[in-house]
Write a structure and sequence with these properties.
Mean pLDDT: 81
Radius of gyration: 23 Å
CATH class: Alpha Beta
Number of strands: 6
Distance between the termini: 67 Å
Strand content: 25-35%
CATH topology: Mago nashi protein
Low-confidence stretches: 1-28
Largest sheet: 6 strands, antiparallel
Strand order of the largest sheet: 4-3-2-1-5-6
Length: about 160
Amino acid sequence: MKRLLILMLLVPCLSYLYTGCCTCKDTTATTSIMPYTVDFSSGGGFSGMHSGFTISPTGMVSYWSEMQGRKEDIRKVGTLSADQLIALQQRIDHSEFRTFVYNETGNMTTSLRITSNEELHTVTWSGARSETEHVPSQIQVLYTYLTELLAPIIIDMTKKDASK
């Protein structure tokens, strides 16, 4: 009986020592730096294809394309630094984006959608993501910063796709 009692006490202790207490795990990969998820996309035309980038609160940048509302070809294409995310958050917070209402469309339409726990706000305008002529002036600074952030990632992604 004593052996059984000792065994019952020993097994959980050995299990704890073997697996660890789980409080020491590195959580930096999933730590949110900013409170927003940013989707920046464009599409339309005769094909109806849309493609864009999603920037997560942790800095992961994903590229995706969709047809008929179904995202396909979702792939991680880069990571933004904490400094870049903080600067992006500051530009979002100091812009008129979250109160600005603008939903124009065209043959090609660009969409900027920012999501947080409390809200989802989308602004759309006529033209492709790289065309600047129809970008509303109220979000021009934010748009410019986003395109600057994504430019090196797009160049790298294009090089990798060309080498396949």
